[in-house]
């Protein structure tokens, strides 16, 4: 009996080095079209899907009975993507149990299969074998029959997915409580359920040369500008990458400028916001596997609106919009203004307040700029840590980081109480910004304004503001100025976009989108006025 308490030195393993043998890993069988010989088709399928090495690929041989004749056949599915019960009911049972059924005379075998034996509603008959095999990766069933030079792609998708649920990041009190999920056709159905218009187009495209991720470009024919549709289609189809899995991957490839902090494509998980954008004349991109839909073009003011703004009465919407604009201002300038006033422009502070500030800071060893930057970085660390940890620990982390450490820092004279107040205000206002990516840009720009204020006071803030505005005014999103309709000014839509107007006052679509229907109506109106004269 081996003594387990005796020490035995570990066996030295051979050194391993990753090398490339340079051999071609592509399929050895070179086929383009489906062969009449079923053995050749099966060999191509097995080499393509690495059968039997692939454990989730199912290849099933069976016989097809048509009248008094029988034919060898096989199908291939991906276990977990195709529904097994549907395969049994729609493929195996019709072919194996209906051998005594009456078959129309004079019909070819492929016509008999599609017209009399397969009960599934979506069937594609293709002569090329590679597209049929590619459909298996999307949950479809590929069927091959002896003596036929065509194959059948049968829609039997049935993988597990998340149902339609409440949006996680755009919750509202008033309005619909439906959100997109990771299923492409579920998302397109949610859009079409709201926009019940035959002109609504869901144009199918594939993203990634190897991932072949399914996507749809949604627009309303006759409303959305054709140049916008062509540009969206061109950018999506000319992405030279192997893999695109989510809409956020696609966003980085098709946006106009990737180095500007401000996002140029609007992302939402609410079907009602996408539908309203389509009606206005925008285009939407729905990507399979992503619960967020991209809306283009997007302007600066689109990121300051919430879904609930459209469902509130006019006075309430105006009040919330003003509060949101104030929050954006404080997020950017509160910390910078505090540094500029305390370091360069003390004459703007009342004497009693100035004495209180100096008394609160007389034991702090750091300048106000260093103090604010330290607290801003600490706040960002706490915010990022709260997102990454589990929910119960996140609540504890907020209490420990926000209260205990802040209070301890003040008592240890590392920071002043007024710095805690300023940083708390800027952090609180950053949470009011509706768009997650838009709030990120303000979190980044806040440090630029702080550095400008520390370097030159108000002059430094104005310098950073001038550069920031120059970049925003030169930015475009799919041919539309990012600051529309404020600059260039559009008198018909500027006030409505900046604040809010009642729904019954929104009689026209935004002019900067140049919708086709508005141009037709304007042309008819001009022709009518000309005839009237």
Automatic annotation (TrEMBL):
The keyword Mitochondrion does not apply. Belongs to the GerABKA family. Pfam families: GerA (PF03323). This is Spore germination protein. GO terms for biological process: spore germination. The chain crosses the membrane at residues 322-341, 414-436, 448-475. GO terms for cellular component: membrane. InterPro entries: Spore_Ger, UPF0353/GerABKA_families. Keywords: Membrane, Transmembrane, Transmembrane helix. The lineage of its organism: Bacteria, Bacillati, Bacillota, Clostridia, Eubacteriales.
